[in-house]
Write a structure and sequence with these properties.
This protein has 106 residues and is mainly alpha-helical. It has helices spanning 2-9, 15-27, 29-32, 36-45, 51-63, 65-70, 72-82, 87-105.
Length: 106
């Protein structure tokens, strides 16, 4: 399956590959959003060391926001990232939370 193949690329060593995989998964939100492994992989990329990967993961999560907000385990991952020791991880997780909260209110 394409979604599983892309999800496995979220763990690739090359940041460019991770960013492209996240972007494509975000564009396949209907297929990708229903798969907890995809959403969790994207949530973990919010704390990536590469800003392009973090941005791609945030964009993908915004496209599949309903899955993030409706599953307690996804909220737990986000909360965990917000408590991360790295400032980039915390900042990125906080931005995802803020974006999702704003979109949920509209």
């Amino acid at each position: 399956h394409v979604v599983e193949a892309l999800a496995s690329l979220l763990r690739d060593q090359q940041s460019r590959v991770r960013a492209v995989a996240a972007t494509v998964l975000g564009k396949m939100s209907e297929e990708a959003g229903g798969r907890p492994g995809v959403v969790k992989g994207l949530m973990e990329l919010v704390g990536d060391s590469d800003s392009a990967v973090r941005d791609a993961a945030r964009g993908a999560l915004q496209n599949i926001e309903e899955d993030v907000l409706s599953k307690p385990e996804m909220v737990e991952v986000l909360v965990g990232l917000m408590q991360h020791t790295g400032r980039y991880e915390r900042a990125s997780a906080s931005k995802v939370h803020l974006d999702l909260s704003r979109r949920a209110r509209t």
